[in-house]
Automatic annotation (TrEMBL):
Keyword Zinc recorded: no
InterPro entries recorded: aa-tRNA-synt_IIb, aa-tRNA-synth_II, aa-tRNA-synth_II/BPL/LPL
Protein name per UniProt: Aminoacyl--tRNA ligase-related protein
Domain called Aminoacyl-transfer RNA synthetases class-II family profile: residue spans: 131-286
Highest taxon in the source lineage: Bacteria
Alphabetical UniProt keywords: Aminoacyl-tRNA synthetase, ATP-binding, Ligase, Nucleotide-binding, Protein biosynthesis
PROSITE patterns: AA_TRNA_LIGASE_II
Amino acid sequence: MAPRTAPAAPPGTVPTLQDPGPGLVVLDPPRAALLLELDSLFTDLAAELDAPGVVGPPLLPAEGLARLDYFRNFPHLGVAAARFPDQAVEALAAGRPVAEQPVSPTGYLLPSATCYGLLLSLAGQDVGPELRLTAVGRCFRNEDHYDGLRRLWGFHMREVVYFGTAEGAREHLARSKEFIETLASRLGVELSYQPANDPFFDKSGSRAKLMALDPVKYEFVATDGTAIASVNRHRNFFGERLGITSEGAVAHSSCTAFGVERWVHAMVLAHGTAQDALRQVRDVRG
């Protein structure tokens, strides 16, 4: 008996797109359009703050991340880039199972946040009175579980980053907070504003304790508990670690981050369907 096949979709329609695996999602046309429209709205903040767009790197050097204490704080989230050694390449070419083949480290990791590449690119430089940049990038995290668009292996993160004075870093976040609250109201998305609960590897470590005593990261949280944006005050930590200065003084920095797929999730949660959410975004854009 011939195997059954799904009925052909009418011309011009897209068949049901299945997720390739846990934590991996293919956005159908309405959700894909919603993602692009939302990110276009987020760039309005960059325009208001005079933050030109750049394109960050697809990989980050492990040595650079170590300078930023990444492995002390988030070693469990890292996704390393590896390559097949020669013997594995030959085995694969001969049809041997991929899972049986060894891999060799490259010294690089996939980004877990967009800002890391921008920070490392400014090491040893003076940014003048102040500098703002924006970028959107694919970010990857080794999570303990995955949950639709709320928690993914890979996702898009739009960031607007500030370098300069302590006062300027605080102003950057204040203006970002106002922008996000206004935008969410216009989009019909209800958000709460609360201190972040970052997934530090050692919850009893000094960094985690300092965050509890003096939160430097606040999140905007949808009604189902999904954090969809954040404002982050770095103090002068990255300036000191990377030798970034502002007119000769150690630079302070801060950043605003949007989890774009999570905004798609929040919009569908608020409006019922991706199509209705898309209409709302387009109404806001005018």
